[in-house]
Write a structure and sequence with these properties.
- It is a single chain.
- By secondary structure, the protein is an alpha/beta fold.
- The protein contains nine helices and five strands, in the order H-H-E-H-E-H-E-H-H-H-H-H-E-E.
- It has a domain of 147 residues: Beta-carbonic Anhydrase, Chain A, CATH 3.40.1050.10.
- Strands 2-1-3-4-5 form a five-stranded mixed β-sheet, sandwiched between helices.
- Strand 4 and strand 5 form a beta hairpin.
- Helix 7 packs across helix 8.
- Bound molecules: zinc ion.
Length: 212
């Protein structure tokens, strides 16, 4: 467990960073989240940050990365957009975290009951929301190719699109970022695929889709 938000973070490996998150979510699901003196961490981190992980999650109010992984200030570089989409701005934020802040792990975190994924399943196109959903359409089309026509009423189908979307966003990150793909190739960072269950509080990592 890494209590101090600055010390020894250079020594942590991508797989150790993943373990810290797994342990943190374990604490969260058991109601054993650590008590932190956040104001003292404000003081410790006032001149510098060194988050060990960057997490691309959804803006959904139930999925705050710091809380569900039981982490404090300075631990996680949190990038949140509806549908956990790897937009160019999101990818730029992840690049900043791994290249300039020393984060060793990128997590793409989908979640059950995602409104953005449901809207994409229903081919919603309105307003700027439609711009977000375009990023989820590859996952929808992939799953529609494997199934009869489905919509957001089929929650099992929505769950499959959610998982597929995590995979597509990881690919979008790799295709869109020379910085991230080269650091992954050099084994300086890892990328993990995960889905959060809003009914249990549990994060399930998909190791077969994670890259180390
Ligand atoms: Zn969502």
């Amino acid at each position: 467990m890494y209590k101090h938000p600055l010390l020894d973070r250079d020594k942590i490996t991508p797989k150790e960073a993943l373990e810290v998150l797994v342990e943190g979510n374990e604490r969260f699901t058991k109601s054993l989240s650590l008590h932190r003196d956040l104001l003292s961490i404000v003081n410790i981190t006032k001149d510098k940050q060194h988050p060990f992980a960057a997490i691309l999650g959804c803006s959904d109010s139930r999925t705050a990365s710091e809380i569900i992984f039981d982490q404090g200030l300075g631990d996680i570089f949190s990038v949140r957009l509806a549908g956990n989409i790897a937009s160019p701005f999101a990818i730029g934020s992840l690049e900043f975290s791994i290249k300039y802040l020393g984060s060793k792990l990128i997590v793409v975190l989908g979640h059950s009951g995602c409104g953005a994924v449901k809207a994409a399943c229903d081919n919603y196109t309105g307003g700027h929301i439609g711009e977000i959903l375009k990023h989820i359409q590859p996952a929808v089309q992939h799953e529609q190719g494997l199934n009869q026509h489905c919509d957001s009423n089929d929650l099992e189908y929505v769950g499959r699109v959610c998982q597929s979307n995590v995979e597509f966003q990881i690919q979008a990150i790799l295709d869109g970022s020379e910085i991230i793909s080269s650091m992954l190739e050099a084994k300086q960072i890892g990328i993990a695929a995960a889905v959060y269950d809003v009914s249990s509080g549990r994060v399930t990592f998909d190791y077969s889709k994670s890259l180390f």
